[in-house]
Amino acid sequence: MKANKIIAGAALVGAIALTATGCAGGGGAAAGGGGGGSDVITVGFAQTGSESGWRSANTESMKEAFSEANGFNLIFNAADNKPEAQIAAVRSFINQGVDAIVLAPIVTDGWDDVLKEAKDANIPVILEDRTVSASEDLYASWVGLDFKKEGETAGKWVADNFGSTPTNMVVLEGTTGSSAATDRAEGFNSAISGTDIKVLDSQTGNFTRAEGKTVMEGFLQKYGSQINLLFAHNDDMGLGALEAIKAAGLTPGTDIKIVTIDAVKDGMTALSKGEFNYIVECNPLLGEKAAEIVKKVVAGESVDKSYIVEDQAFDQEQAAKVLDSRPY
Ligand code: GZL
User: How confident is the model over 218-270, as pLDDT tens digits?
Assistant: First the structure.
C-alpha cells in the first residue's frame, strides 16, 4: 500500500491495517508502491462474481496464489456479475492505494475511464481470464485462455460429427458482451460454416445453471423434438439445460446431443455418464501465473502483454478415464 495511504489507514483503524498487511509498501518504483520497508504486496482482486463452477475454481486458484504465505495481502471483491459494481470495486482499490489490481472483467467494454484512473495513480492492472477493449497501455498484462480457439474446437467436433446431415441446434450463450461469449461464438460459427447445422435459436443464459435451465425450457416449448443439438458456452448452462431436457421426457446426450466448454467436475461427470457428448476445457487455474506476473510488475521487471494457458478437449470415453484425476 502507498505509505501515505497505509499510514492514513493505520491512523483510522489503529494497528489493524499494519498487522494485516505489515507496512505493506514494498512496491517497486514501476508500481508506485509506497516503499514502507515491507515486502508484502497489497493486491485488489476484482472478480466477476460466483456465477459458475468454473468461477469458483478460478477464485480458489487466485486466493491460493495471492496468499499471505506467498507475500500478498489480498483484498477480494466479487461483483455478482454486475459490471457497474465491478468498476466501483476497482475504483475503491485505487482509493485504498493498493500496490496492484487484478481484474477478471465481466464484460469487454466500459473500462477505459477507471483503467486510466489506475494508470494516473501509478497502480498497475493485470487482467486475468476475460479481456477488455480498452487500449493495451492501460493494463500491464493479461493471463487467460484462447476463447476463439475453444469455440473453434467445439464447432469442429460438431461439424465432423453432425455437419453432413441436417441438424437443428440451439445455443446457450455466455454473458452478453463478455469476451468469453463473443469469442467462443465467433470460433464456433466459423467452424460450422458451410455445414448442414441450422441454428434454431441462440440466447444468453449468463453462464449460470438456473438461466441455462430457464432458456432451455423455452427452447423446448418452442421447438420440442426439432432440437437435435445444444451448444452451451459453459458446463453450468449445459447442466441447467440437462434438467429441462430430462423434465421434458427426453434423454440428454442421445435425443439431444450436448457440447459445452469448461470441463469442470460436474460437466465431466455428465460427459462420462453419456449425458453430454463433448467438452472443450477452459483451465480456471490462473492464480499462480497471475501472482508471478504481479510480483514482476511491482518489482519493475518487464512482462509480456499476454499469457495464454493451453486447453484440451474430451469425448465421453476420455472423460471417464480422467474424471477421478481432475484437479477441479
Ligand atoms: C472463461 C470464463 C467463463 C467460463 C464460465 O474463462 O470467463 O466464465 O466459461 C464462467 O463458466 O462463468
Answer: 999 999 999 999 999 999 999 999 999 999 999 999 999 999 999 999 999 99
Amino acid in the structure at residue 129: D
Q: Yes or no: say if 104 and 124 are a contact pair by the CB < 8 Å rule.
A: no
d(CA 246, CA 233): 20
Superfamily classification of domain 10-144+284-309: Response regulator (3.40.50.2300)
Which residue's alpha carbon is at the smallest distance from atom 6 of ligand 1?
129
The residue to which cell 445453471 is assigned:
209
Question: What confidence tens digit (pLDDT) does each residue in 103-122 have?
Answer: 999 999 999 999 999 999 99
Q: What is the pTM of this model?
A: 0.89
pLDDT, tens digit (0-9, with 9 covering 90-100), for 19-47: 233 333 333 334 444 344 578 999 999 99
Does the beta carbon of 129 lie inside 6 Å of ligand 1?
yes
Cα(130) to ligand 1 centroid in Å equals: 8
Domain 147-282 = CATH 3.40.50.2300? yes
